[in-house]
């Protein structure tokens, strides 16, 4: 069995263990998830107490679920959260009692347009009880009485959990990857992000990095708000590039959305998306509409944070049980890790240098960097890259700009810069 | 009879009264015109004395016409200013005498390429006597003597008249509309501008406006120069957007020309001209060539003043009696008033706000601005508009920029901003 | 015989005299060349001593060639520098001795892909001996011994020669033309540049110029480095536009490359290349790859220097004896001089003015610049040019920008500016 095969089987077993866990914006399901992922990368788990004010918001009570069932009057269990974590209205308050079909209908959530799907519905900030069912299940209910047994707790002394892992680099400047951890029982729209980031961290841990890498798993919206209340100022000082990740489990083109503030995060994204194997992807303009970039890119923070996903963000199975574990592709997850690694290595290459011999060209021949014989043959791309790097390393051009102007790959430009640095001609001015 | 029909009949009767008046850059014809228009809007009439230095110019003597005729030697009146106000060379000095045909020819102005047209010719700053005739009239003249009787006065103690009307708004910032008042006996190229502005003022008077609106009727060139000498400094401080109007009486596409300095005046013009019903129009780059924008946009003032007209500025009938009253369309004039009103209401909507909750999103749910239940359905455009407005209201984006970035109409964006303002989330920073 | 014919015969005789001279980056061949060109323009010849440090480089010993031959063992001369100056490896050290064919092969340079061509090969900074032959000559050599007799001197007390000529203008601001003087026995890639510049200088000398014109002939790379070490600071202060010239002897489109810093040098180039007769040419983006712009545009100097050449820079005959005297077109050289003159006259026209009457238009009629009679005819382009120049002469627009905005030729705009200047309306703010 090849190493790749072994790793895929290992990945599949993680998916099997993580998928059935009932996650929400708080609660033990999230902690259990972080514990499993910590077998790969030893995450720190930060706990933010319920009731804490975070900007305009307040961290809600911690929600946990003991049991959630609907039985008919014969005692047959018709709906059970143990069958699928989507069966409970996320953040449902407890309720036990017998209700008529009419009354029950008001507390059931289904999708008439996708009759076989259990929808993902939540009510975090308004107290409601409810269960989510497929439209088929709803249609099968006959007039009569139903026994509802929702045993949940909403603990004002609980907390919200965030997993964080940092790989220090030579620079204090950070590259951030974040995925959300609050969606239960859905594969593409949630689970994949957490696991891809964890696998990326595992890879970067084995490298010598210039940048510091930060990995964050937190619930959508209230999670990023809590984290920004906690460490937003530091991020403002040090964040070089951030990436909000979603929907990366299917073999579809990589798409992305620019940050609100622009700059290097977008430029590297643009560069990588032009690589032949990613060129089907689309780089969209910024919008404050989708996930945690709404918080990271709020005008008060305006952090260099972009978003990355695969395929259509409004896919057919979105926010329902149709986004199943079976549809996850482990190959797609590995491709995603490769894509993220490409982004990271591009940032690592994209330094800015100062030419120490700015007046005329330095004499490259005497340093072994240039042929000592002049002839009619054209220079190699590698030789031309030296001239480009020396000419534009005035402190105002990063290597990506030089690569663009010279129509050369960032890799060749970066190698030329390193040769010049070794020869004492250039010095990096990145800190 | 509908209200619209009544208004059109009323408008037609104004046109009947205004058309025959002999206007020029000074004189009683202009005052009479302003008096009639003041039945709709009570204009202030400013008088600038002849001889006043205005920048590099001097206000000329006031010109009035008593009589202007050419008779043949049998005493038949061949040309008479009472038949058409274009028959006199505008600003002709007085002359009475008998002249040979040869001598007369030097003082006649006609258009060989449009033989039936009386041309509009003027000589404001050089003393000449003359009459304007159709080429057909000129060709019919036979050798012999002609009796010329031009009774005009050029009064060094006269004055130049400008009509002005101001509708104060909540802001000192002004939106200006100006049309010229000096062209006699032509419908499209003059009379329409004055009347459309007056009808616009009548409408705006009935609204609560943020901006202060200023309406100016003055002769071309010397009129705007005189006004700028009088109030140019104040305009420099307060002018938000200005519009020089011409040729709006025919049912043709609305065209416009950008201001010299760019900015909001042009952006709103661009926005309105993209509306479906105006999309045949062309927004031209600035040029210092046509009418009073030559003065308003001179480099020393460089005011945010654009130009608006309909159709081809070099239309066939231009500056001749072919630009007749009969060709005026009252529908076209009403359309023009609508177009101007659209510009005004777009400016009124295009405010700039500051988000009072810039760090992460404010919690919209608790303010009733966001659903308390999370589900799979897409957000409405109205809901997305709230997020756009909050995200970009950092003091650097006006609502038009937000509308463009979000591909939403200014109206929806403006309504979202008002909702946020009412909820205490935004505050307008326009003064 | 026409004057043009006479001048072409004269030019051809200069080519005959200059072509056979053995030039290099130093040595008597260069001095002899400058002496001949000084019959047209009295160049100053600057001498930079061997051994002088110039930035990161050192001026090499002066190289001169007495004799360079290869004979077979029968005493037949097989290769002789007197037959073609390319036959010696440029900067070959002296060597006399009998060598086997095998040993000789290591010291011969030829071009297998162009078997009839003698290549141009140099080894300025590494000591080598060698001869350059056609591949056909090489193939004809039979096993045996060969007598090599290379009598060259490398004088550490010699010097590097640069020819300079300055035509002072009213302004201290300079326009520079430079061509290289180091390539022996090639027509297009060298000789033409020197002679075209000299002929241009001859023309400009007969004009009254606003700008100061500087003409420089120097060896590539070490020549520009030496000159910049000598006068780079002054160039930084005064250089308005510089042009590095190469390959202008063949009737091919004029191509150019932008400067590194952009600005007027590029704008004028762009403007001239849009002229109908030059529109086949291409204006390339800056690259630090070809000739002396690598030094003039090094980041420490970043001078406004562009490059100009004709045809494909990687032409078939490049750096070999195929770039022969016979392929030179004297017509092409004259066309080149015309092209350069067009660039110069465009710079001369492209002044920047300040309007002394910036508030409203000045009254042109009273200054005889505008008709005193107003009529329906359209204004001439010359009249409109006056309005454009006055409106945009706010100190921030040069005449080329005004020409572009008004879609008028620079010539008409310049004439309008001169009229306004004569009327006391404008003043030039170029120094």
The largest sheet of chain A is: 8 strands, mixed
> Which descriptor suits the 3D outline of chain A?
elongated
Structural class of chain A, by secondary structure, is alpha/beta
The number of E-state strands of chain A comes to 19
Q: Which chains make the largest contact?
A: A-C, 27 and 40 residues
Tally the helices of chain A: what do you get? Answer: 12
Strand content of chain A: 15-25%
* Assembly status: homotrimer
Mean pLDDT across residues of chain A: 96
Which spans of chain A have pLDDT < 50 for at least 5 consecutive residues?
none
Strand order of the largest sheet of chain A: 1-10-12-11-13-16-14-15
**C-alpha end-to-end distance of chain A:** 44 Å
Cα-atom Rg of chain A, whole angstroms? 26 Å
Kindly state the percentage of residues in helix of chain A: 25-40%
Concise summary:
3 copies of one chain form a homotrimer. The first copy, chain A, is α/β, with parallel strands linked by helices and 431 residues long.
Structural features, described:
Chain A is built from twelve helices and 19 strands. The first copy, chain A, is of the alpha/beta class and 431 residues long. The first copy, chain A, has an eight-stranded mixed beta sheet, with helices on both faces. In chain A, helix 5 packs across helix 9 (330-349), helix 7 packs across helix 9 and helix 11 (399-406) crosses helix 12 (410-422). The longest helix of chain A is centred in the C-terminal third of the chain and has 20 residues, at 330-349. Chains in contact: A-B, A-C, B-C. Chains A and C meet through helix 10 of A and helix 6 of C.
């Amino acid at each position: 069995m090849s190493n790749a095969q072994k790793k895929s089987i290992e990945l599949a077993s993680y998916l099997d263990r993580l998928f059935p866990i009932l996650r929400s914006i708080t609660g033990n399901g999230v902690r259990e998830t972080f514990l499993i992922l910590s077998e790969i990368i030893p995450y720190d788990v930060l706990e933010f107490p319920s009731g804490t004010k975070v900007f305009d918001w307040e961290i809600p009570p911690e929600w946990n679920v003991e049991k959630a069932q609907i039985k008919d009057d014969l005692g047959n269990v018709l709906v059970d959260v143990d069958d699928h974590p989507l069966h409970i209205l996320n953040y449902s308050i407890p309720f036990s009692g017998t209700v008529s079909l009419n009354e029950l209908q008001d507390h059931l959530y289904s999708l008439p347009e996708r009759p076989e799907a259990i929808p993902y519905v939540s009510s975090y900030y308004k107290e409601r009880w409810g269960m989510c069912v497929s439209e088929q299940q709803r249609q099968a209910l006959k007039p009569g009485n139903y026994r509802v047994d929702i045993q949940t707790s909403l603990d004002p002394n609980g907390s919200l959990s965030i997993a964080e892992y940092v790989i220090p680099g030579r620079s204090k400047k950070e590259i951030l990857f974040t995925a959300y951890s609050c969606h239960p029982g859905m594969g593409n729209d949630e689970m994949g992000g957490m696991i891809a980031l964890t696998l990326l961290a595992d890879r970067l841990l084995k490298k010598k990095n210039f940048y510091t890498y930060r990995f964050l798993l937190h619930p959508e919206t209230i999670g990023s708000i809590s984290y920004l209340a906690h460490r937003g100022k530091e991020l403002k000082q040090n964040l070089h590039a951030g990436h909000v990740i979603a929907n990366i489990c299917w073999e579809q083109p990589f798409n992305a959305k620019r940050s609100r503030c622009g700059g290097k995060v977008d430029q590297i994204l643009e560069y990588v998306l032009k690589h032949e194997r990613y060129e089907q992807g689309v780089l969209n303009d910024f919008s404050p509409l989708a996930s945690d970039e709404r918080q990271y890119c709020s005008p008060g923070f305006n952090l260099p944070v972009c978003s990355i996903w695969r395929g259509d963000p409004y896919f057919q199975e979105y926010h329902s049980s149709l986004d199943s574990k079976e549809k996850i592709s482990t190959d797609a997850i590995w491709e995603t890790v490769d894509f993220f690694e490409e982004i990271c290595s591009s940032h690592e290459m994209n330094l800015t240098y100062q030419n120490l011999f700015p007046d005329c060209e330095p004499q490259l021949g005497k340093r072994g960097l240039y042929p000592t014989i002049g002839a009619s043959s054209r220079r190699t791309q590698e030789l031309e890259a030296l001239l480009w790097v020396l000419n534009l390393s005035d402190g105002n051009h990063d290597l990506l700009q030089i690569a663009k102007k010279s129509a050369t790959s960032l890799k060749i430009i970066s190698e030329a810069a390193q040769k010049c640095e070794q020869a004492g001609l250039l010095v990096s001015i990145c800190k």
